[in-house]
Every structure is written in structure tokens, then in C-alpha cells.
Specification:
- This protein has helices at 21-27, 31-37, 46-58, 109-123, 139-147, 176-183; strands spanning 11-14, 67-72, 78-88, 93-100, 129-135, 151-162, 165-175.
- By secondary structure, the protein is α+β, with helices and mostly antiparallel strands.
- A seven-stranded mixed β-sheet has the order 1-2-3-4-5-7-6, with helices on both faces.
- The chain is globular and about 45 Å long.
- It starts with 10 loop residues before the first strand and ends with a helix.
Length: 184
């Protein structure tokens, strides 16, 4: 049997499908989780959620800058998303973001999705460093990045306002050599 770069023990990374709208629309009900990822916005209608997901499913994927669904390996259920951004091909660096729906926290989906994404970016696309930014209020993500081997490289103080308080932003990085040492 042939193994896929995009499939781990628990998750598969896949393209968005129009029917994914329902899962992501439900994830938006968890305000704290939404804030931890970016910013809280007003509620979206079902019609809007369906339209946006259908449009995203039709978009062409760039080889280096893209967004994928994190789905369970067992039943292909959407549990979150992972994306690359701020891709710098000259210097071989990129940032990524990850969000896992609140009902799916603490099941190992995020860590496995990150490892799969990094393997692709390092060994298929020849990038040499991954970066992630995490708000100080997102304790679970801070712990995740430290646990999977990212190095804390910096901290921007009071750079975001959400939920009545200012958050610091931590910058994490992992080089291809650090990844290889840890994950082979």
C-alpha cells in the first residue's frame, strides 16, 4: 500500500469541500477559540457560510501558500484547518496558522497536522524554516508549539486587543534541521 504525504495516524490534510461549511460554521460559535486564532467577527448567516466555503473549494491551490482542512483519518470529518502564509521563497521561510474546532481539542489532531504540513514544506518545497505566531492568551497553542519542538524566538508586547485585554504575541520558529532531528 502506498502512503500519502497528507495522511498521518489520526488525520488527513485535504482540500476544502462545499459541504465543509457546516463544520466551520459551528466552530465559529466558540468565541474564545475564534479569538485565539485571529479576531472575533459578527455572526455569519448560513447562506454566507455556504457561499464562502463553495468559493474556497473552487479556488486554485498554490504549491506554497494554501489552506487545507484537517480531517479525521477514520471518517474524513472536518475538525479544523491549517494554512501557510507570508511565504518567502528567496529566504526559504514561511508562516503557518492552525485552528482546531473546540469539540476536537486535545485529541492530537493539531500536532499531527503541523508535522505533516512541515514535512511537505521542508522536503517537497525546499523551505528551510517555519514560523508561527501565537497570542499570549492562547495557552494551549503556546504549549503545543513548545511540545512539538518549536523554539521561542521573540515576543511582541501588547500588540493585540481582544476580550477586554491586550495580548503579547510570541514568535516561534523551527528549522528543517530541527525538524529532521526530531521527526526524521
Amino acid at each position: 500500500m502506498t502512503s500519502s504525504t497528507w495522511v498521518g495516524d489520526r488525520v488527513r490534510l485535504r482540500a476544502r469541500e462545499p459541504e465543509d461549511w457546516e463544520a466551520f460554521h459551528a466552530f465559529d460559535e466558540y468565541s474564545d477559540a475564534v479569538r485565539n486564532g485571529w479576531r472575533l467577527s459578527p455572526p455569519k448567516s448560513v447562506a454566507r457560510a455556504k457561499k464562502e466555503m463553495a468559493e474556497r473549494a473552487e479556488q486554485e491551490l498554490d504549491l506554497d501558500e494554501f489552506s487545507l482542512v484537517i480531517a479525521t483519518k477514520q471518517d474524513n470529518e472536518a475538525v479544523g484547518s491549517i494554512n501557510t502564509h507570508e511565504v518567502d521563497r528567496v529566504h526559504g521561510t514561511f508562516c503557518y496558522g492552525i485552528a482546531v474546532g473546540t469539540p476536537h481539542h486535545r485529541k492530537g489532531y493539531a500536532s499531527e497536522a503541523v508535522v505533516l504540513l512541515l514535512r511537505y514544506m521542508f522536503f517537497e518545497r525546499r523551505f528551510q524554516k517555519a514560523e508561527a505566531r501565537v497570542y499570549s492568551s492562547n495557552e494551549a497553542s503556546l504549549a503545543l508549539h513548545r511540545r512539538i519542538g518549536f523554539v521561542e524566538e521573540g515576543r511582541r508586547r501588547r500588540c493585540r486587543y481582544a476580550n477586554g485585554r491586550y495580548d503579547d504575541e510570541f514568535l516561534f520558529g523551527m528549522t528543517v534541521e530541527e525538524y529532521t532531528e526530531r521527526y526524521g
